[in-house]
Amino acid sequence: MQTIQLVGAILFGLALLHTFAAKSFEILSHRHPRHAGLFHLLGEVEVVFGFWAFILIAAIALLSGGEAAVHYAESRQYTEPLFVFTVMVVAASRPVLDIMERLLLVLAKLLPMRVELALVWFGLALVPLTGSLITEPAAMTLAALMLAPLVFRDGMPEWLKYGALGVLFVNVSIGGTLTAYAAPPVLMVAGTWQWDSAFMVTHFGWKAAVAVAINATAVTFMLRKHLRTPAAPSAEAAAAPAVPLAVTAIHLAFLAAVVLLGHHPVLFLGIFMLFLGFTQAYQRYQNPLIIKEGLLVGFFLAGLVVLGGMQQWWLQPIVESLPPTALFFSALGLTAITDNAALTYLGSLIQGISAQSQYMLVAGAVAGGGLTVIANAPNPAGVSLLRRGFQDESIGAIGLLAGALAPTIVAALAFLL
């Protein structure tokens, strides 16, 4: 263990503590107006890991020199933060949201239940499962924007909001396991272990679908008394011109291109530049793009990449030394304090790991993907889009953990039994 590795582990621990204390900083910003700006900055969950990543880079510069610090920062892979930012902005554009809402509304009216109840169930079950096709970050973005006015609003009990948030995060984490490319922790091992989409459906996908349905049904039942008919569109929204089918098709093509090129940042960022140009050319069919929210999420994930790169020295020995069942529960727990994709990547480096251990590692990693903000890459996107619906416009780490416990147990049982 080198000195800088120890420093990196300490800073990573401080960043974890900071995520749990973020809501406290928001409270302090209201109590001390003179320093409200600083406290509000420290209370932004999306800022936490980027903030501590800069401290780590400064520490490397002090201990090993500026050249070493720059080399370390440039040696990290930032494809995932860039992809999540890009797919968030494209998926949240008005034409994509409009066609999704229309489709789900048609389906909701076919079911023998209240429309708002059906829409909430779709947002917590069907949309997370589509993450296996459009990737988990895109599914999280669509589900969050769809559920925000129905569940994450004034008048909904706070504990139910956390319950719904926990279900959403867990269901998105396991809902991407029907294919081999949509869930980041699966993608990290699929090529090395030769897992294709057929393998994922038969070993993970159907179990995940069962758990998703159970979780969504349970929390929708709990929400039923507090749901109300969706509000009518505002006068401004009603006056906006209808989106032509051709514009919707072009937006869907942009989304598909970004998803297909998700491992090639030069290409999908080029597609994104074209997308921005198209939205400017046809601005009358657009709502404001969520550039700020997407950038904050990208900043969070980039910080996690920088800090996480220093944790391999203590994580990998744990992963290597455990038998299959213990590996499952350890992966589930470790996912709460480190990104689940980083955890499975470490597993892919182990030579001669058994097929049972491979399954247990990935199953535990995806089952625990809803426990904290950092557990799964799409979670910061959900936090960014939904936190305004919570008290003090901040999502508490303890509340999220409590809300995610029950659906995590359901997912764990589905994968184990």
From TrEMBL:
Pfam families: Na_H_antiport_3 (PF07399). The keyword Transmembrane applies. Keywords: Membrane, Transmembrane, Transmembrane helix. It comes from the Bacteria. The chain crosses the membrane at residues 45-66, 78-97, 117-150, 162-184, 204-223, 235-260, 266-282, 294-314, 326-347, 359-377, 397-416. The keyword Transcription does not apply. InterPro entries: Na_H_antiport_3 (IPR009978). This is Na+/H+ antiporter.
